[in-house]
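The authors assume throughout that readers already know how a fold can be written as discrete tokens. In essence, backbone conformation is discretised, so a fold becomes a row of integers matching the chain in length. A single example would do more here than another paragraph of explanation. For illustration, here is how one protein appears when written out as sequence plus structure tokens:

…
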Amino acid sequence: MTAIVLAGGAATRMGGIDKGLVNLNGRPFAAHVLERLRGQCADVVISANRNLETYCGFGHPVVPDEVSGFQGPLAGIAAALDVVRTPLAVVAPCDSPYLPSDYVQRLLAAFADAGCRAAAAAAGGRPQPVFMMIEAGLGDELKAWLARGERKVRGWLESVGVVWVPFPDVHAFDNLNTAEDLELAQGRRLGSCSGDVVQKD
């Protein structure tokens, strides 16, 4: 299992700064997410388009998008899949410090139970498509999707066949998108959340 941490976005709602390097409780966003994923995955790849040397300092391979202009999370995933050598890849954005401690385990159960090619989280009845696990061999199909000008994450997942995995904690996949989100999160305890059973879309 390889984790892909998405840190290559434009972060327009936070003033265009490199969100993965913003401090939360004294540590960069990316460090919080990496800490949660290291215990669940054998390998980690970071998708980033700025400050590449700084991201290399986290001790994992760093892969920029193959296309310029911040083309969205699917572009980052497509580039990262080129260096993934495990059968499966699990994805999480760098601004998700409340990632459940059993995130990988719950998504992996979907592959065992449903024989799917992609599984993604849902919380509080809302799909969270960027929080996904996919077959690493889907890279060519993803690049073809992007070449057609498509950018919607949920649309691509549904095109390959996705199983939605419900997690009971509605805040487990909260993103810190704005300065106000960050201010509210400072000092908030980053506890462990858990998921629930798998359901078909």
Observations:
- The CA atoms of residues 87 and 137 lie 7 Å apart.
